[in-house]
Amino acid sequence: MLLPGRDVCNVFVAGVFLLLLACRFISGVESDINCLKSFICNFLGVECWHPHDESKVLNIKLADLGLKGQFPRGVVNCTSLTGLDLSRNNLSGPIPEDIHQLISYITSFDLSSNSFSGTIPRNISDCTHLNVLKLDNNKLTGQIPQELAQLSRLKIFSVANNQLSGPVPNFNSGTTGVFSSNTGTIGVESCANNHGLCGAPLESCRSSSQNKWSKDLVRAIKSHAELMFGALGFVFSFFLFPFSIESFGLR
């Protein structure tokens, strides 16, 4: 089955562009690099600053193109990049630990609806210009770095539908959830379906003393279970099978 012309074009352009991003241009000669720069702003999903005069890439939007592979580290070459949208693809692997060095000035970062795994890098909090951070619908594990609460410009945040645990960071009052509006806080939908997450806007986290009390109670119940069941058995047998003193031959 053949893809429609537009779909073929989309996949081809996105594939070529990601190939360019994956390359650090170490082996390319200057003429080749200049050649690429001359038309890269005409690629699908690429927005540039003064595209006819300069080749400074500002935004890369390659959502829903069936892209595969790991996070393209070559975005480090796009030194003026402010927006990166790779959502709704088939990208996998970890989010790079040095992500703050790859997308230093980014304001909008969307990796939602992929298959990224591993933990959320703490260093993402060094991307201090972030307004939008969407990591929902992946396979991320571990805790949400508390350092993310330091992102004072963050307006939209979502980590729903992952495998995260621990407390939700205490974001400032200017942050809103992806599916919330004008609430002043992270919406429940932004953190939903992470069975180990707790804290506002979800259920409160249990303190260590509460957890210890619960564990001690469980151990106590288990240790006395045999005695309790034995006593219950005696009581039930007394009522179910009544007997008299004569049955013991004491008279």
Helix-strand blueprint:
Blueprint: H1 5-22, H2 30-39, E1 46-49, E2 56-61, E3 68-69, E4 83-85, E5 90-94, H3 99-102, E6 108-110, E7 115-118, E8 132-134, E9 139-143, E10 156-158, E11 163-167, E12 176-177, E13 196-198, H4 208-223, H5 225-240
Parallel strand pairs: 2-4, 3-5, 4-6, 5-7, 6-8, 7-9, 8-10, 9-11, 10-12, 11-13
Antiparallel strand pairs: 1-2
Explained architecture:
By secondary structure, the protein is α/β, with parallel strands linked by helices. The chain has helices spanning 5-22, 30-39, 99-102, 208-223, 225-240, and strands at residues 46-49, 56-61, 68-69, 83-85, 90-94, 108-110, 115-118, 132-134, 139-143, 156-158, 163-167, 176-177, 196-198. The strands form 2 sheets. Strands 1-2-4-6-8-10-12 form a 7-stranded mixed sheet, with no helix packed on it. Strands 3-5-7-9-11-13 form a 6-stranded parallel sheet, with no helix packed on it. The longest helix has 18 residues, at 5-22.
